[in-house]
From TrEMBL:
The chain crosses the membrane at residues 9-29, 41-62, 83-106, 112-132, 153-171, 183-209. One of its GO terms (cellular component) is endoplasmic reticulum membrane. The keyword Membrane applies. InterPro entries: GPI_biosynthesis_protein_Pig-F. Keywords: Endoplasmic reticulum, GPI-anchor biosynthesis, Membrane, Transmembrane, Transmembrane helix. The keyword Membrane applies. It comes from Crocuta crocuta. Pathway: Glycolipid biosynthesis; glycosylphosphatidylinositol-anchor biosynthesis. This is PIGF protein.
Length: 219
């Protein structure tokens, strides 16, 4: 494992964090009264677009899993359509999970779905960029010893940290503090965002710290 690969991973993650920061500040120049709390649904859409765009650009430039096979236009179009379908399926899947865990079934449907979209952006989009619409590859990466690169190691950490952040973000909702950020699903989306950003910082540091112990099948 080369230190340059870890540095490239770190720089990539810092740009992903920067995209979230931009989603907070740039819209305020064009939208009146824009804020994470007051216009939360708008921010969710903007943040999702920013993070998705940066992920796509970075993975197209970095190409951690570049392959020369099946590079025809029809294959690329089919792969893109499959990725879109996988992303939508992920959004609906998370939406159902949130309802099963207590989110309003009929009221606040848009809020719940956009929460599912942002969580899919933090978890499914990186998987699609790195692994493509390949369920076997997803199962391999998220198995105990299935990773084959530092990028997949990082994918594990950022995905898990996003879920943990979402789970922790749900704790303040039932409390009677009557704070604006306790309204569904603000605290959960903030938890998912902080969890995702924490994973982006922690994963390259953890990989660098354990670089001598980490071995991969393709190395």
């Amino acid at each position: 494992m080369k230190d340059t690969d870890i540095k490239r991973l770190l720089y990539t993650h810092l740009l992903c964090i920067f995209s979230i920061i931009l989603s907070i500040f740039i819209p305020s120049f064009f939208l009146e009264n824009f804020s994470i709390l007051e216009t939360h649904l708008t921010w969710l859409c903007i943040c999702s677009v920013f993070v998705t765009a940066v992920n796509l650009v970075l993975y197209l430039v970095v190409k951690p899993n570049a392959s020369s096979k099946r590079s025809s236009l029809s294959y690329k179009v089919t792969r893109f359509l499959k990725c879109c379908i996988y992303f939508l399926m992920s959004c609906f899947f998370f939406h159902v999970i949130f309802v099963l865990y207590g989110a309003p079934l009929i009221e606040l449907v848009l809020e719940t779905f956009l929460f599912a979209v942002i969580l899919s952006t933090f978890t499914t989009i990186p998987c699609l960029c790195l692994l493509g619409p390949n369920i076997k590859a997803w199962l391999r990466v998220f198995s105990r010893n299935g990773v084959t690169s530092i990028w997949e190691n990082s994918l594990q950490i950022t995905t898990i940290s996003s879920f943990i952040g979402t789970w922790l973000g749900a704790f303040p909702i039932p409390l009677d503090w009557e704070r604006p950020w306790q309204v569904w699903p603000i605290s959960c989306t903030l938890g998912a965002t902080f969890g995702y950003m924490a994973g982006l910082v922690i994963s390259p540091l953890w990989i660098y710290w354990n670089r001598k112990q980490l071995t991969y099948k393709n190395n």
